[in-house]
Amino acid sequence: MPRNVAGLFPTPVYTIVLPDGAALNAGLQQVIEARRGVEAGVSRSNVGGWQSDIDLLQWGGREARMLADHCIAASERLTATGSGEPAPIAWRPEMWANINRTGDSNQTHWHPGSYLSFVYYVDDGYGGSTDRADGGELVFVDPRMPFLRMRTPDLRYRDATGDVDEHETWVRPFSGLLIGFPSFLGHSVRPYRGTRTRISIAINMIARRV
Amino acid sequence: MSPTPRIEPLFATPLIVETIPDHEVERQTVAAVVSAAATAGGMAPGGSWSGTGGIRPDGLQKLIRRIGDAANRNTADIRYPHRSIAWQTRIGGHVAARQGPIEIAPSYDAFWSTIYVADDGYAGSRDPGAGGELIFHDPRLPAPMMEMPDLRLRMEIGRANAIYTPEIAVRPATGYLLLYPGWLRVSMRPLRVAGPRLMVGVSLVAPLDSER
Q1: ipTM of the complex
Q2: Which of A88, A200, B54, B134 counts the most CB atoms within 10 A of its CB?
Q3: Is the pLDDT of residue B45 over 50?
Q4: Contact state of B138 with A153 under an 8 Å Cβ cutoff
Q5: In 3D, which of A110, A103, A106 has the Cα closest to residue A45?
Q6: Angle between helices A21-36 and A61-78 (to 10 degrees)
Q7: What does the pLDDT look like over A117-153, one tens digit per residue?
Q8: Which residues of A touch B6 (CB under 8 A)?
Q9: Is B84 within 8 Å of chain A by CB?
């Protein structure tokens, strides 16, 4: 019997490997560690670790501006009007830095008030290790939860390849990775268990009509 | 210049469309039921009728078996992978004449809802203005539209029209069997031709975990 399995309404996650990541990272690491010495930081979704306020662009120097420009360019490419034309939007990035050490994590959260969100990994902290026990994965949570599982938690829908649906997707990040997603997508960070310092930058892209 | 983003589409909602090659018995059964309902006053002339009365499951056993097989092919039981699922079925009829809307009620307890299109009502016409499309509504709404409703995410790079839409329209064809999660909201645009459109809805309810 002819059969067609379509996946409707997927939630897109965008990955970009920055070609100038290595050049950016040295400067970003230096300025973020210096900032940590003078700013107490804020406590939001982070469990442990240090998180700056959202004004990184004001003190992050040239490299932070370059990262913001990458996010603006990506936001322009990843959005359109309802008819598919380039959208007349002015994107305003809000950026903050995160420093995590072993045991630190982030609770599940969303980024209300923003259209697209990004995370950039200055230093994944793994130091070349591929040990899964290092943790620290970025976890995306299916926005159809909990009703997807409420009545029959052991039953799964199969996709076109026969794979079963999962209500979480884990991403093991790497230095130089820029990952984007709709700001309504719930996400968390698994406890980081590595011995080195992890540094990342979160970016909210605020959309305003031109 | 910034590199091209790679897009990973996560957490999609399945819609399975199968075409039944030999369904004359089912089609005739549904047509007979509709005729009986119209005679009994269950369907106003030019209007539409929807309900469970009159469609005798014993005339549609072959169709129900097909639907069960399709559901099993597209379902995994991660707790009891070697057990078959004892689906409980509910069946109802949908009939629409010109301008007739159809309310397709969600089956919140069903793992799968299905629609069998006994007659698309188009009488062979390919007129795109004939209406009658089935509309599938994004279960994540309103979140994807709240921040800026006229701004859309691209779902592919390089295809200008591959952008997010909160509804997906499917023009059904006679012999189609559509399967989708029971919680998914589905509606139908008014039919712009004489019709009638004849459809049967079958909900497949899985036993609760505590009953298995």
Answers
A1: 0.93
A2: A200
A3: no
A4: no
A5: A106
A6: 120
A7: 999 999 999 999 999 999 999 999 999 999 999 999 9
A8: 14-16
A9: no
